[in-house]
Design brief:
Blueprint: H1 2-42, H2 49-83
Length: about 90
Amino acid sequence: MATGGIDSVCAMMRRGIEFLKREIKQKETQIGILTARLQKLQSQPTADATIVKEIRDDIAKLENELVTDRAQLSAFEDEVSASCPPA
C-alpha cells in the first residue's frame, strides 16, 4: 500500500512536469509573437512609445515567468528521477 501513495505522488508530479513544459512552450511562443510585433512597431517612424513600452514590459514579465517555470521544471524532474520508479 505504501507504493500506492508514492505512485500517486509521482503521477501528480509527472503531470506537473507536463503542465510546466506546455506553459514554457506557450510563453516562448508568446515572447516570439510579441518580439516580432515590437520589431514591426519600432520600424515605423511614428511608433507609439506607450505601446512599445507595454510590449517590452509584457516580454520582460514573460521572460521572468520563464525563469521561474524552468527552475520549477528542473526541481520536479530532479525529484521524480530521484524518488519515483520509471513511468
